Amino acid sequence: MVDFFRSYINNNYFVGYILKEQEHIIAMSIGMKKPWISGMEYYIDQFCVKASWQGKGIGIYFLKLIEREIRMEKMNAIILNTERGFPSEKFYLKNGFESINELTTLIKYPAE
Predict the structure, then answer these.
(1) Is 14 exposed, middle or buried (0-12, 13-18, 19+ CB in 10 A)?
(2) Is pTM, for the whole model, over 0.90?
(3) Are 78 and 70 in contact (CB under 8 A)?
């Protein structure tokens, strides 16, 4: 698990946020600055709220804090992928995200 976080932090474009209650992490967002034609964007790779804090408005509050921070950092959008039909999709749509129907996620595993 430490290597997982270390690999993100060592990326020159790494951007991460945590939300704490006293000394306990209750939410985190891990991603990177992503250059695009219209400027820098914040690409969220991992966004989570501790299970015991879900359903209490923490995710909404945390996203608003992140939005304020990325505006200060001159980033102009938040981009992420999530699974269609999952609760996370409903959460993001409810919080102002839009689905880009023209995009398709593709994957290829290299042959051995």
Answers:
(1) middle
(2) no
(3) yes
CB 62 within 8 A of CB 17: yes
Backbone torsion region of residue 74, taken as left when φ is above 0, otherwise alpha when ψ lies between -120 and 50, otherwise beta: left
Distance CA(27)–CA(20), nearest Å, equals: 7
* 2-55: pLDDT as tens digits: 787 788 788 888 999 999 999 999 999 999 999 988 899 999 999 999 999 999
Query: In the 8-state DSSP scheme, what is residue 110?
Result: P
Nearest to 32 by CA among 75, 2, 61: 75
**Over the stretch 3-12, which tens digit does the pLDDT of each residue have?**
877 887 888 8
Strands 39-49, 24-36: pairing kind: antiparallel
